[in-house]
Structure prediction request, 307 residues.
Amino acid sequence: RSLMSRGWKSEISSIKDVDITWNEPLSKYTTFKVGGIITCIIYPKSKEALSKTIDVLKGACVPYFVLGKGSNLLVADDLPEMVAISLKRASVEAESTEAGGRVQVRAGAGIALSKLMRICLNQGLTGLEFLVGIPGSLGGAVMMNAGTKHGEISDVLEHVTMMTEKGEVRITRMNIKFSYRKTHLPVEGVVWDATLHTEKEEKKIVRKRMLDILRERKIRQPEPTRTAGSVFKNPPGDYAGRLIEQAGLKGKVLGGAKISEKHANWIVTTHGAKASDVYGLLKLVQNTVEDKFGIKLEPEIKLIGFE
Prediction:
């Protein structure tokens, strides 16, 4: 196989337990509702199918990324040949096991955090409430060490199952490094499932904690429509939103994108917006904040298809 190989499409199509949609507009799959047409979205339904998919794509030098709930992505309007892998159709049900007073919850990477929260509430499990209201998937939350001031994935992650082109690799917590909004895994591949630790608690107490966090989010943040949440990571000892507001950029509009007037670290889009509008605002914020305060803000969202 080589860069010139075009046989990868037929190879992918022949893998067992894989669904494929070709030439899909990614605007349908991202919360910004922008993004160009991707070569294909691949839905592996088993570990073996995912491993084989990675093997074929790496062998043919076709770039790929994992598409979760699309809540942390900005995808360019014009994309080169590339592939998205979705674990939405992978059959990994959430399960819990109790040991030594703790309850371990194992769930597939494709599960929505909202569904995981419902499971915790129904089973009376506490410890993951910090994830309530975050619109992503478990795999995305693991990869970006998702969290809030109430906690983050690094506080609760026990182990991760990764799929590589060579097969399954199980990684325990002691072999995982964490930093702010980033999880550093020792192998390259795709998260298949994750195990998190929780504790038993009365359902009414879990429900109250979740509702309190949701109320707090609603007061501080814009309505979660056509946005990807926080665009930039908070720099050490400061807040990206404060710096953007101090730079006079709150409410700034570019095409169909706008810096939220409620929270300056959020960009919202309107119908007809393009990815280039959002990206233009992102670069404007970076340049203005660096000019005024000497701080280069680092994107928290993942940029796909941009140089």
